[in-house]
Design goal:
9 helices; 0% strand; 246 residues; mainly alpha
């Protein structure tokens, strides 16, 4: 079990470790997105709706809401940029924690979100920005980790790709024309995409139940496994640093 948990965030990647980490992160994104809506009445995992709402609020003269959208968008971008900085820095240092660092950063940010539920007077805009930062951080991390093959924080692209594969699955190939290969669906990819969509939905259900029952502090439940996944590579790097200094 320890070896398996270590593999999820270690720098040495396999197809299985990429998928299994993506499965959990997709679940977390669904839970945080649904839970965030329960907390602040706004979804924070996808920027398409956020940018559209910014345009609407600007035209309608809702300056406060427009500026809130801008801060959320910038927070998502800053989260993605932070993830890229951490990963690239760790790669240049040849650390085991190339992907564990942004994962640990996400766990800390998720815990901060959970602790904010214990405080009075926390601005909604700050909460939304924090959630957007988390989503940007996570999406950039899994994008770099998987070579841009997997996204975890929104399902629009996933659903589109599912539709493409279904279209190829039911395409009726006629006799080969000019030696062109037949249209074939990637069944493995279709299964992966369907699993990710399902986990986002299941995560949303669990997140809604948790946040409805316990409020924002329920985010701590999501933060703990993230920190566990990140712990082993981080400990390995700390041990290496300690050995060099002794």
């Amino acid at each position: 079990m320890q070896a398996y948990i270590r593999s999820l965030a270690d720098r040495h990647r396999t197809e299985a470790s990429d998928r299994h980490l993506a499965f959990y992160l997709t679940f977390v994104a669904g839970a945080a997105n649904a839970g965030g809506f329960m907390a602040v009445q706004q979804y924070t995992s996808h920027m398409s709706g956020m940018v559209s709402s910014m345009a609407d609020n600007l035209i309608l003269g809702n300056v406060g809401l427009f500026l809130g959208g801008v801060s959320a968008l910038l927070a998502f971008i800053f989260g993605a940029a932070t993830s890229a900085i951490l990963i690239n820095w760790a790669k240049r240092k040849d650390l085991h924690s190339q992907y564990a660092l942004p994962l640990a950063f996400e766990a800390v940010a998720m815990a901060a979100f959970g602790l904010s539920g214990l405080l009075d007077g926390v601005l909604t805009a700050v909460t939304v920005a924090l959630l957007c930062f988390i989503m940007g951080l996570q999406n950039a991390m899994i994008t770099k980790l998987s070579g841009a093959r997997i996204r975890t924080t929104h399902v629009t692209g996933l659903v589109t790709d599912v539709g493409i594969e279904i279209g190829k699955l039911f395409y009726r190939n006629s006799a080969a024309v000019l030696g062109r290969p037949p249209v074939m669906a990637d069944r493995d990819k279709l299964g992966l995409l369907s699993t990710l969509i399902s986990l986002f939905f299941i995560g949303g259900i669990c997140g809604a139940v948790l946040f409805k029952t316990f409020g924002i502090p329920a985010a701590m439940v999501l933060a703990l496994p993230l920190m566990l996944f990140a712990a082993f590579p981080l400990v390995s790097d700390l041990q290496s640093i300690r050995q060099r200094w002794t």
